[in-house]
Amino acid sequence: MDLNVSVTESGDTLAVSFTGPLDETQAIALSDRILNLCPAEIPARVEVDLSNCPQVCNQGFGALVSFRLSPEIAKCSASIKGLNGAMEQRLKILKLDRLFDIQKQEAKTKSAAN
Fold first, then answer.
1. What are the sequence ranges of the domains in the chain?
2. DSSP 27
3. Is the CATH number 2.30.30.240 carried by domain 4-103?
4. pTM, to two decimals
5. 15-26: pLDDT as tens digits
6. Is 44 helix (H, G, I), strand (E, B) or coil?
7. Which of 88, 64, 95, 63 is nearest to 78 (CA)?
8. Coil, helix or strand for 55?
């Protein structure tokens, strides 16, 4: 399965979204691929969304680090969202929560019909 990457700009935020698994083959040159999709002027905030990314391998996290530390992005604040429990644990073990603010997913609640 291929990894689709989309980059959208809204106000002072650049949203980078992934759809599909971020595995070893997809991680190769991912940082450059994302940067090629970015506008010339990078907004103050970068938000990485992994909601539609079922898995991220270690090389995938490495590619995200490379993107985060690139000169264009390093000056921005950066957050990451859409992590499942296993991805969030690995992100913390790898100390990547020092590079990205982790946005917690809102709990989904069910309401009973009256």
1. 4-103
2. H
3. no
4. 0.86
5. 999 999 999 988
6. coil
7. 64
8. coil
